[in-house]
Amino acid sequence: MRRRFISLFFTAVFAAGTLTGCGGSVETTVQTSGNENTAAVEENKDVTLTNVSYDPTRELYAAYNELFKEHWKETTGGEIEITQSHGGSGKQALEVANGLEADVVTLALEYDVNAVQNAGLIDEGWLDEFPESSSPYTSTIVFLVRKGNPKNIKDWDDLTKEGVGVITPNPKTSGGACWNYLAAWSYAKKNISEDEEQIKDFVKSIYKNVLVLDSGARGATTSFVENGQGDVLIAWENEAFLSIKDYPEDYEIIVPSLSILAQPSVAVVDKVAAKHGTKEAATEYLNYLYSDEAQRIAGDNFYRPSNPEILKEYKDVFDVDVNLVTIDDFGGWNEAHEKHFTDGGIFDQIYEN
User: Fold this and answer.
1) Which of 14, 236, 241, 285 has the fewest C-beta atoms lying within 10 Å of its C-beta?
2) Is the pLDDT of residue 139 over 60?
3) Cα dihedral angle (10, 13, 14, 16), rounded to 10 degrees?
4) Helix 196-208 to helix 175-191 angle, to the nearest 10 degrees?
5) 3-state SS, residue 232
6) CATH 3.40.190.10 domain span(s) along the chain
7) Rounded to two decimals, what is the model's pTM?
8) Residue 112: pLDDT above 60?
9) What CATH superfamily is the domain 4-8+139-262+322-352?
10) Cβ atoms of residues 49 and 83 within 8 Å
């Protein structure tokens, strides 16, 4: 079993946003172009877009939106204003389904986009509308520990030990937390037992050590990093890197022997974009995420570019050889969600008992 310990040193400081989770309140920030929106894209190419996203993409889209404004100006001659909304992925999907008018959604997982589709707002076939199953960047799940790793945490089994305080969001409300849970489940299945009851016991022993079950990924980061709670944060890889960037002398990243390929999903909200006359801009906004420039912005913000050649440029940042399972190992998101995260599912069974 390969176990890697990574200590990273950065000196720049990133600007962290207000923290919400899937079950938390929604925070909206507006990045303006300096021009008021006009009624129709086809008249002069000036447009306003709303991107409803999840918690940890704040820094990524703050940078990408500036790049896209330049691209839109160069290709259409018009101005674009981008309204950015962040919150927990599941809550964001629910908000859009219930009337929050997003032109595009950029959420933590396919299941949340499907929830918007099921509300009649996204056309069939969205998963194939953009390359890589409409996932322009990926991530994985790692551990963030305090400098020196005082609890000697190296792998998932260390999170079950007595006296180890774990911080992770709630998979009932947070997309990132679902990835965390499934990664732990996969480790137990491979290393503990194929027997489901023993797997449940292993995952339950991790959640018994959870001190704070925040509603979203950024909230969990705040609990661990800013509030000093716990010994280990189960985190999106990009969240862990951002914490190192902000506090290079205080934290370290542990890459477990097995993790999961986390694939955030993007989609045009077809019904809303048609209503707003923004379909052209919305489609290009997501399509341009696959450009070389945007892929490097993803890498600079510690997301793994979907372009394998550009990902190679970040081989000194990411462990590109980490052992990753995928959602396909769970039968896809519909099957995984039904089994593990619906009311009365396995998570409820192990956490409530």
Assistant:
1) 14
2) yes
3) 120
4) 130
5) strand
6) 4-8+139-262+322-352, 27-138+264-312
7) 0.84
8) yes
9) Periplasmic binding protein-like II (3.40.190.10)
10) yes
